[in-house]
Every structure is written in structure tokens, then in C-alpha cells.
Amino acid sequence: MTRAAAPTPAVRGLYVPLVTPFDERGRVDIAALEHLAATALHDGSAGVVALGTTAEASSLSASERSEVVAACSRVCADLGAELVVGTGTNDTRTTIERHERLHEMPAVTASLAVVPYYVRPTQAGVVAHFRAVAARSPVPLIVYNVPYRTARGLDSEALLELAGTDNIAGVKQAVDGIDVDTLALLSGSTPWDPATRQGFSVLAGDDPFIFPSITMGATGAIAASSGIDTAAFVAMVQHGLHHHLEQGRKYAEELLPLTRALFAEPNPVVLKALLCADGRIATADVRGPLLRCSPEAARLARRARTGRMVPKPARR
Ligand SMILES: O=C(O)C1=N[C@H](C(=O)O)C[C@H](O)C1
């Protein structure tokens, strides 16, 4: 498969990474997944992410992964929305194979490809990895830079090199804050230009830093917390993109306790507990080595959520 000739799309707005719901027998609950995807899109997100870390992708079998992507493809095709699929793993050959298979799923608009973990390659090795994948992928890549999960990160120089690579649309920047590399990246990355249909999008990948990242030039976010109260996260992102600082800041401040509570235990265990309490998924079950959410973390998350003062935005 040679790379697509299609122009790189703008990656802009809020993308909701979906959990993978399990039923009482531990099987993937496809109906619940479709419902989660549809709700996230009706609530104003630009798209959804299947098979992210939030989806426990590393604990799904190959056939479960395909079922999940197929279900999300159906919903996104129906609603004309973007679908980003987590495809990354820690070896280049398998990552290329996974990307090539996306060809069978026309609703997929981009991949989310993590920096190879465990192997500890050099920065040059990581750049070469993404270039090799981008050259063979039928869809543009969003690089997932998350050093606290992968033990290897990309500095701004390496990311700007990737920004100039064909078929790389952006980066999900999750460096546990806004560091100087992120600021250098934001100031050096090419803004989206509708005339040339080119650009490189920096997406906030750390939930507490969505709004400050957008005010510094990020074009959106991929944030697990937005699986709860999606419309409020959409409002925050849209206010940021339209430079409505005061309104956006209100959402940012009021969503922060919820976001923090959702990450009190490894994602997505608290998120699943809230979704289950809302009746949106049948069980809060997660697969090992994750453990179900503790009652205390679930209680604190419910409390953080009800403390919100900003009115809920109307659903579109
Ligand atoms: O699945 C994702 O995409 C995300 N995963 C991160 C994580 O689990 O570390 C968090 C982020 O909000 C989105």
C-alpha cells in the first residue's frame, strides 16, 4: 500500500477516546459501544477515537479489535464524523501492517500511533519509525507522544521534523504538562492553511491542560475525561479555539476536579465506573492487569462531577 494521495485533513476540535465496554460475561458489548460513540458525536465532538489507551486496546484480541473498529466505523459513517484508530505498537513492521489494514475501513480518517514503548529507541529511530509507517499508511497519522507510558519521548526538534513529513497530520502531546518543548513545538508548527490544505496539528493529550494548550495554539484535544459530560468539554475547546478566554476558562476550572478524579486510578477504571453508574455501560469491568475502580475513587469522581457550576451547554 502506498501512501494516500488525499490531502491531509485538519485535526481540529475535541476527539473522544471511547472505552471498550464489557458485558457480564466479559465480552465486548458492541451495542453499548455504538451508543457511546453516537452520544459523543451528538454532543458535538469532532470525532471519536477507537482503540486508544482508554479502550484497553492492549488487552483486546485481534478479532475484538476488528469488531470495535467496525462498530465505530458504522456510527461515524452514519453521522459523517471523524474516526481515529489507535494502531501503534512497539515494532515498526507490525505497526505498518496494522495501518495497512485500515484500508478496509473507509470511515477511518486518521490513526493514533504511539511512540514505540519498551524498546527504548533513539529519537532518530523513532523518527525513522514514523516516517516508514507514514509512507505506507492509507490514512494520516497522529503521533502519540506520551513519555510517561513509553519511556521514550520526542523533543520539539524531532516533532517538527515529523511535522514536515507527508501523511503525518499532528501529534497528541501528553507530556504531563506544558513543557518548553511543547511551547517550542506550538510556536514552530505550521498553522492549518485552508488554501494549501496543509498544516500540522498539536492536540492536547493531557486532560488537565486542554484549555491552556489551546490558548497557546493547540487545535484541539484527545481526552478521556470527555467521555463524561462531553458537551461541556466541547464548549471549553470551542471557546478556546474562538479565543473566548473568560468563558473557556470557566469550563476549564470547573471541569478540572472531574478530570483529576478520573485519573486518580489508572485510566479508564474510574471513567468506566462513572459510565456504569450512569447506566451507559453494563459493567465497570476492566481487564487485567487493571483492577476495577475502588469505591472511594468512584465516590470522589461522582462528587467532583456534581460540584460543577457552569450550566450544561445545550445538546446540538
Ligand atoms: O485513550 C486515549 O486516547 C487517552 N488516554 C490517555 C491515558 O490513558 O493515559 C489519557 C488521555 O485522556 C486520552
Explain what you see.
This protein is an alpha/beta fold and 316 residues long. It has a single domain (13-244), classed as Aldolase class I (TIM Barrel, Alpha-Beta Barrel). The model is unreliable at 1-6 (pLDDT under 50). The chain is globular, with a radius of gyration of 18 Å. Helix 4 runs parallel beside helix 6 (156-163) and helix 9 (230-241) runs antiparallel to helix 10 (245-262). It contains 12 helices and 8 strands.
Largest sheet: 8 strands, parallel, barrel
Total helical elements:
12
Q: How helical, in percent, are the residues?
A: 40-55%
How many beta-strand elements?
8
Radius of gyration: 18 Å
CATH class: Alpha Beta
Looking at the structure, the CATH topology is TIM Barrel
How many angstroms does the end-to-end distance come to? 39 Å
Family: Belongs to the DapA family.
Subunit structure: Homotetramer; dimer of dimers.
Pathway: Amino-acid biosynthesis; L-lysine biosynthesis via DAP pathway; (S)-tetrahydrodipicolinate from L-aspartate: step 3/4
Keywords: Amino-acid biosynthesis, Cytoplasm, Diaminopimelate biosynthesis, Lyase, Lysine biosynthesis, Schiff base
